[in-house]
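The data are quoted verbatim for completeness:
=====
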Amino acid sequence: MRLFFLFLFGLVSCLSAQDRVIPLFPEGAPCPSGFRDSTVYLNTIGRLIRRVAEPEIHHYQPVPRSASGSAILIVPGGGYVVEAWDIEGEDIARRMAQEGIHAFVLKHRLPRYYTDSCKYTVALGDAQRGIQTIRLMADSLGIDRDRVAIMGFSAGGHLAASASVHHLAPDSTAFPPAAAFSSRPDLSLPIYAVLSMDDSPVSHGGSMMSLLGEHPDPAVRDRFNLPRQVHPGVPPTFLAHASDDEGVVPDNSLRYYRALHENRVPASLHVFSTGGHGFGTAKHFDGPVSGWLDLALQWMRWHGF
């Protein structure tokens, strides 16, 4: 009970602030690391988070009169080594908030710096708890618990899709209170995402190494080889990729789309002729890829967001 009241106190404190930062594990995160947060800044893409001590979500709130009652959890990418916080996090969140959507950017622990089972559980656990925490806060923020999406970029897209495939059922008897809510997102948007993890050239070796280690257990690797894990309970999915992406080849999205289609999961796939890897909002690009976020928002609105 003491932890519960500490959680509520922390939550109220966060909600009263202009820039809301919400801890995901007020009871203490599993697999504690002893790390300190570490961030660098690059002129080309902005902030890169290199180490995460405590996972949290950063809330970007829409203007109340334009709020739609929907929410999205945004997962920046970076090969499970860093998180491209500005270009694939804050920039996207600000656009979502402008459209009336409560946006939350996930600051998750990076598997690269963990060992043993913690390596492949920390990031997914953070994403699952992120969805649960948004639902826990829904009443106080005016969010509909049945309209919570997840979007991720590159390795963050792998994490978003992992949370969409591997979700936790609600448990009303569990502690802390967030565990009473499902971690299944209502929509899923993996963008130029790492999705395949196998021996083929389609896989992104760096992300796979960071998440699973040098010699992964075959069963664990299969769990995160997401086209093989798709099932009918995966939420409706929006995929976007560029044909000239040499960092994460577009066959990742093509394979995943086929698996979704085979399982009768409603899915939209957009492959643009140019854009490369890591285009973010793509507003600085010429050509069709510059409109991908408008297409995603249109698709979300069609699904009631």
